[in-house]
Input
Amino acid sequence: MDVRKLLICCAVWALSVPCGCQRTQQPPMTRRKAPEMRRQEPPTRPRRPALDPKAARVHINSQPSDALVYIDGKPRGVTPAKFVLRAGKYRMTVVKRGFKKEDVFVTLKPGAMSVQWLQLKEKAAPRPVVRKKIYREGKEVWVRAGTYPLGAPKSEDGLWLTDKDGKKKRFVPITSMPQPKGTLPPLKGNATLKRGFWIAKTETTQGDFVALMGYAPFYFRACGAHCPVERVHWHEALAYANALSKKHGLPTCFVCSGRKAKRRCHLNTKYKETGYTNCKGYRLPTEHEWEIAARAGAASARYAHPRKMSWYRQNAVVSYKGCYRPSKEATFRWDDPEQSFAVRCAGVQLVAQKQPNKWDLYDMYGNVEEWCWDRVPAPKDAPNPSAGGFRIVKGGYFYSVHYTLRATYRRRLHATTRFLGAGFRLVRSGEAPASKPTTQKAKATKKGQ
Output
């Protein structure tokens, strides 16, 4: 190469001007540039998709903010929020803890923008729970003599299982539903009472039992003095009836011996001849008397929905110590909404907190099963049918399934069984209450005076 031409190329190379001599002075570069030598290009912004001509924009804000936004029942975000929705009608709900939920119905037009500003209102402080008056010992209802219907009416041959909306879903016979152990077929026909009787408005309470008997065999002691007695066997109920009769100066119906769980009672000999119901002291009701009182003169199986009239599997939740925690769920139909939920910490409740029947009797269904006087044949596999045999219990208890809360439901327990769901309610034979003069007669009497 010519020297002159070489000098010119070197001068050009020094001035960083590309020329032919560059290739001779440095090695050829590879096609792929080294990472440190790449030219960093500015990041390109993602292109905003073109707005659908049929869509609309919605801005939702609330005071206070950070409230959940639901559009047609589906969660979509937190306020303040912006949405792009297709044109149409929407229900927008804003929910925040401690505030009332707000619903807004919006009709969106294509290409339009809707701005929703919601002022949330605070929830009012919860009202204190007002307990009904606790009916103590001595509050009784008179049931007059007469003929009353028993057994299952035609309307009770099967049960309608209802869905969440309360609409009838399908018909399921009672016999096909799982039944508790010891369940017996219902009574049939009519019952005639030759003598009226007084029946307690509520089940015997723990406070009344301890005051007379001096001991507390209960499982749910933490519930308190105004909760019904439970875990007392049939003989203990008779012994309490004797003690109450003595307290009020009435004849005792039973002869008892032993103490506490070993107590054994039987009917006084003179009433074996004249009849059990002729005793004017306190006693357990016969099954006929109990069922008549539960129906309150009606032929229907219930007087209200189980939630309104009783404590049972679905609402008997408690917060006190020593509640009943079932280790294993009973096998029943999970497709029935009345049975699909069961409380995990159940127990007895205060008496007289639910709706009474027409005769002002409380807790005839649920809370605790109630011992009756009647004896039933022992099952074939019974190991020890003596010591009082098997007796009837009625009404269901705090963990009963809803379809057992019926006047016709009956099952047997051995007289010496201490079951945490079994209590009692006392009755007594006596004189009918004096009839009160009517309003017209009362006015006439005043005029005559």
